[in-house]
Amino acid sequence: MRLDNILFRLGMASTIPGARQLVNHRHILVNGRIVDIPSYRCKPRDIITAGNEQKSRAELPKHLTLHPFQFKGLVNQIIDSNWVGLKINELLVVEYYSRQT
User: Fold this and answer.
1) Residue 55 contacts by C-beta under 8 Å, 6 or more apart in sequence?
2) In this structure, are residues 20 and 4 in contact, taking their beta carbons and an 8 Å threshold?
3) With contact defined as beta carbons under 8 Å apart, do 29 and 48 qualify?
4) Which candidate, 10, 49, 42, 11, places its Cα nearest to that of 28?
5) Distance CA 50, CA 62 (A)
């Protein structure tokens, strides 16, 4: 649900670092407001717009919608962790990062 990842998934940037640069350079609006934080957590019903040219992608995740001619993307819902297809023990991740102080 990070803004830079959503821009990449929508096809608004060809790479995640490219998406981070778009956000850092203040080219992205979320709900009509400039957002310059790539780690911004998008919520359902957020409307993401860009002033730059977009590339269309053939297959979009179900939680995102792209309107290419309006330079706009929409977050439909929070992504389900089962959809990602990774088996991760979240408690081990929390335990690891809690020791990093």
Assistant:
1) 11, 12, 14
2) yes
3) yes
4) 49
5) 21
Tell me if the pTM is above 0.85. Answer: no
pLDDT in tens, 19-58: 999 999 999 999 999 999 999 999 999 999 986 444 444 4
Instruction: Give CA–CA dist 64/45, Å, rounded.
Output: 10
Cβ-in-10-Å burial (0-12, 13-18, 19+) of 94 comes to exposed
> Which tokens sit at 31?
């709900």
Select from 3.20.20.20, 3.10.290.10, 3.40.50.300, 3.30.450.20 the CATH code of 3-98. 3.10.290.10
DSSP 8-state code for residue 78 = P
Rounded distance between C-alpha atoms, residue 27 and residue 93, angstroms: 33
Q: How many CA atoms lie within 13 A of 78 on its CB side?
A: 3
